[in-house]
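Ligand: iron/sulfur cluster. Inputs:
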Amino acid sequence: MATNRRALLKGMAAAGAVVASGVTTAEARARKRAPADAIGMLYDATLCIGCKTCVVACKQANGLPPDTSRGDGLWDAPDDLNSKTKNIIKLYKGEGRQSFMKAQCMHCVDPSCINACMMGSLEKREYGVVTWHGERCTGCRYCGVACPYGIPTYEYDKAFPAVVKCEMCAQRKDKPFKPACCEICPVKAVIFGTYADLLVEAKRRLAEHPDRYEPKVFGETDGGGTQVLYLSAAGIPFDKLGLPDLGPEPVPQLQQSIQHGIYQGFIAPAALFAVLAGVIWRNRKAAARGEGVDS
Amino acid sequence: MSAHAKAQPVGGPIWTRGFRLITALFAVSAVLMIWRWIVGLGAATDLSDGYPWGLWIAFDVVTGTALGCGGYAMAFLVYIFNKGRYHPLVRPAVLTSALGYTMAALAINLDVGRPLYIYLIPIRPSWWNLNSALLEVALCVMSYVAVLWIELSPAFFERWEAGPEGFLKKLSATFHPIVKKLMVPLLAVGILLPTMHQSSLGSLMLLAGKKLHGLWHTPLLPLLFLISCVGMGYAVVAFEGTLAARVFHRHRETSMLASLGKVTGAVVMGWAVLRLLDIVLRGKVGLLFSFDMYGFFFWLEVALSIVGALMLLSGSRHTEAGQFVASMLIVSSGVLYRIDTYLVAYNPGPNWSYFPTVPEQLITLGIVAFEIMLYVVLVKTFPILSGGTSARAAK
Ligand code: SF4
Ligand code: SF4
Ligand code: SF4
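Predicted complex:
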């Protein structure tokens, strides 16, 4: 029996070493960067007047029905992002100050939702825009569990539901990839542009009016970066607006390092299989000879 | 291996009063399952965009497969550590695993919104997102369900070979030798797959990031899930051993389960120690003494497993009652750990809440009822349990 156990332990150590080396190499999992032609939006909370025109425009451009579930049923008044609402204006109120807040998909640089999705139903398409493809979606809703901003919504009221989220107006027939919300905003509180330009613009505003803003462009690095950028009024930290403090690490980084470490090239599982099969085979042979049934 | 008690069908009538009761429960849930398909998840469950996963994922799938780890844990002991004397416990363990995993697969079909698309997974490898931990779980679980039933198939073949001429006998004559030949790779795959997906069930929640409470969100999630499922696997074997012995009036493998208890106790204790150590090393000790709901559930998990493990490491493991109580504590701790990780410690924000609706609960109960029905029919018809009243199991 001693030989068997030694063989097993050796094999396991070998498999372990493979895993360990995998983990260390995977820790250097390359940081994702926004593609060169990435587009995005910049929302400046100090400019927004809360008129919600963008909410209406978004519904029109996306052909979304009104959400009349609140009140007397006469109002399109969604209480949050939902399967009928890809874009919403919220209001933060606290200590004598208030701020509007626009919520929609952030089009993360390294999106959690994409890492989650089994068949690549969620995908980073041209310009770095994150879109959903129904022909691959199982409706598992792991994307909803994974997204740190609570963005993907689901048609819970349907027997055959779809996942609904802002796709940067990618599917707009007349003007694909031209955000209707940015087009319509009467005070240019939310603007559209290339990611690089928007970042420059956001920083320019910060430098010009340091007293007016929180000293940070949300999305430059947060959670690995987002293609939708935010500026908030001085004294109103971003987490009050519903943008969690994620740190610079991409949300999928930890899971991916571990999974890639274990499954890199499928070496560790294959090694483990070989060891297991070998040990079982020897044990059974020994048992058939009537020895080593027990040890 | 000649010393092993031969597995035999339990026999006896199937349509007993208890069985009728369970069938009724299943019938109710079957109606609800159909209804769920007509009205959608929103009307049937309390799921929402805040809580996309609820009872069915947390209990039926994640916990159900862990409860189905008896086959995995026993295979490790018997075929890898070569403890042949536990052999009589393997077949019943594989049966409960096969049932547990099959029911989990059924629950997945109920939970996902677009189940037909699941069946694209095995046939469209070009679409696979190899970064997705859920893809790994899906592929592993699908294959493992098949592996378990094949591992169990000799129990069917043995019975059919002894039966009358006909299709089943011919089927057995063809496939029994093939299965026998394939047993070694099959057993190896049968150990590899749960190692992979039970740990991945932990990895899944790594992606929940800050939404998962700090006492649960740790890089060790995959390892903790893996160790915990092994402990649960052994505990379920003991638990089932006791119940089967009682219900079917069979000889109970008390002394065998006692030595198994030592292994279980060590594994479970290891889990509890690792869990605490992880909190200390990550500098989250403060959370342990915050005296909130999270702290309470954390301590409950750890306490249940430590008490269970201590019982099995002490003299109590030699008595039937001791084994039973200890395995109950360990199973509860494992169930709680999973429910906590997927629901209780998952916090998507202040405006969301979740509590399973009555239909959700009834469907879960119905699935368990179905599992019991199949278990009863199978052990009464096929040679799965050993230790029949006449044949005393070898020590
Ligand atoms: S905000 Fe959420 S849904 Fe949008 S890309 Fe990021 S992870 Fe995906
Ligand atoms: S619900 Fe659909 S889009 Fe979301 S992760 Fe599951 S398969 Fe992907
Ligand atoms: S980009 Fe288009 S889909 Fe997204 S919020 Fe704006 S209008 Fe709506």
